[in-house]
Amino acid sequence: MQKVAVAVLNYNGKAFLKTFLPKLVEHSPESSVWIIDNKSEDDSLEYVKKNYPDVKLIENKVNGGFSKGYNDGLKKIEAEYYVLVNSDIEVSKDWINPIIRFMDQNRSVAACQPKIKSYHKRDYFEYAGASGGFIDWLGYPFCRGRIFNTLEEDKGQYDDNSKIFWASGACFFIRSSVYRELGGLDEIYFAHMEEIDLCWRIHRAGYEVYAIPESEVWHVGGGTLNSESPFKTFLNFRNSLYTLYKNSDPKKLTKTLVFRLFLDLAAILSFLIKGRLKQVNAILKANREFYFKNRPTHIDNLPYHFKNQNELIYKSSILWNYYFKGKKIFKNPRQNASS
Questions:
Q1: What is the rounded distance in angstroms from the CA atom of residue 180 to the CA atom of residue 195?
Q2: In whole numbers, what is the pLDDT of the chain averaged over residues?
Q3: Those residues with Cβ within 8 angstroms of residue 275's Cβ, 6 or more apart along the chain or in another chain
Q4: Could you write out the DSSP letters of every residue in 127-174?
Q5: What is the rounded average pLDDT of the residues 2-26?
Q6: Does the pLDDT value for residue 240 go beyond 60?
Q7: What is the pLDDT at residue 152?
Q8: What dihedral angle (degrees, nearest 10) is formed by the CA atoms of 312, 180, 23, 133?
Q9: β-pairing verdict for 2-10 and 32-37
Q10: Do 174 and 78 touch, CB atoms closer than 8 A?
Q11: Residue 226, pLDDT score
């Protein structure tokens, strides 16, 4: 079995592959590089075959989104560590070794992420992960370096190896044994927040998740669905509810969902005032699907509480602190932000 396999999920991503695959191959000499293709309709595969004969290809039969795409592809890869990398990630020279060293030395750590910065604004953190992810009790994610749409400049303030709640799916290191033990990414998600669900299950199984900022990458973001996409809004709202439903303590779930329902209604009102009717419909559709049509059928038998829960799940409301108290800079999960 090889040590490290870097797996890039591709769908019609020739432009990204032309831009980012050269550095990925150059800076990953200690690993194999795989392209898992989600039934692309462009000539991505022909480009890779012609220009990168050493890059291994897996062709999925259907486009099942991020979750199924990786699950199907990773079944065909034997390695101690999987590194899931978005096709719009630029890696740095020594991006793999710091994380693999840390995980080798800390067997309780199941997943990690590097520091993720913006490709277009290179001194700033990037939305999808920044320097490690957290979540509040209502299911709203935030990061060291990013709370909602406020992105901090990287001044080394989050350069410590830190225990985190979730690692970004944009650049996600995980032990293959744990990935398989927990059944991989839940395919009901299709895309968005599936890595948060997996990390929650990782914690519940007794493992840990870390950010290792010595490793650094740059992310374009919005390569598949931009932030204004109603479909992305639908996925974010629905999948957040899925994540709470699957992982929250059942004794507290009703209270959590009642609060979330009021907050989702507030979001609907906000979009109505702005005249963004497509976003309104997306949120309504997300709630309709969760409450009346389709909930996760697989609920695992993992414990709902885990060792560091009080440190990693913020007990206040990140939304309230951000919009009503003006606290927009990460501090820590207990006190959170201070402006």
A1: 14
A2: 94
A3: none
A4: TTTTT-EEEETTS-EEETTEETTEE-B-SSTT-S-EE-SB--TTEEEE
A5: 97
A6: yes
A7: 97
A8: -10
A9: parallel
A10: no
A11: 60
